[in-house]
Amino acid sequence: MVKVEQLAAATFAPFGHVARAGEPTHKLIRDNKVKLSKSPAVFRHGDEAVDLALDFYEVQPERAPVRITQAERHEHSAQMFVPMSVTDYLVVVWDNNPCEGGRPHAFVGGPGDVVIYHPGVWHHGIMVIGKPGLFASTMWRTRNGRDVEFTDLPAPLEVLVSGSGE
């Protein structure tokens, strides 16, 4: 069973970025009617990933305990998830290849948390807790179709999240 922690920029830093409006710096523009937040997030990608893609994920909620059997990564690009209509969501990442002893880490994000996975970070697909959710996602794609790699986990992973449809 994996311990779940609140999504925060510092604890998620080895895997990518967490961005929120108002953090870390902001300024007022257009006669003080707009607050512009400048994120330090970098959207890295390799030279072969040349097409910026925009996708939408309509996600049904998970039931407790959440059972995970597969991981994925995008070796050539960062991948960003922007909550559009979300209450809480679950982010599961590994510090290395899960089939080679990588340890899982689980985070709960909220409606204001944008997640950007670093290129090559093993993760599970985005999941929502409690209510259905909608995300916009973007990443750079290669033209040879080698944008994603999947692996089956050696053993199922269970994540217990309160509010996940018990």
General description of the model:
With 166 residues, the chain is mostly beta strands. The protein has a single domain, classed as Ureidoglycolate hydrolase (Jelly Rolls). Helix content is 2%, strand content 52%. The chain has a five-stranded mixed sheet with strand order 1-10-9-12-6, with no helix packed on it. It has a five-stranded antiparallel sheet with strand order 2-11-8-13-5, with no helix packed on it.
CATH architecture: Sandwich
Mean pLDDT comes to 91
Report the top-level CATH class: Mainly Beta
Fourth-level CATH superfamily: Ureidoglycolate hydrolase
| Count of DSSP H/I helices | 1
What share of the residues lie within helices?
A: under 10%
**Rough outline:** globular
**What is the terminal separation in angstroms?**
16 Å
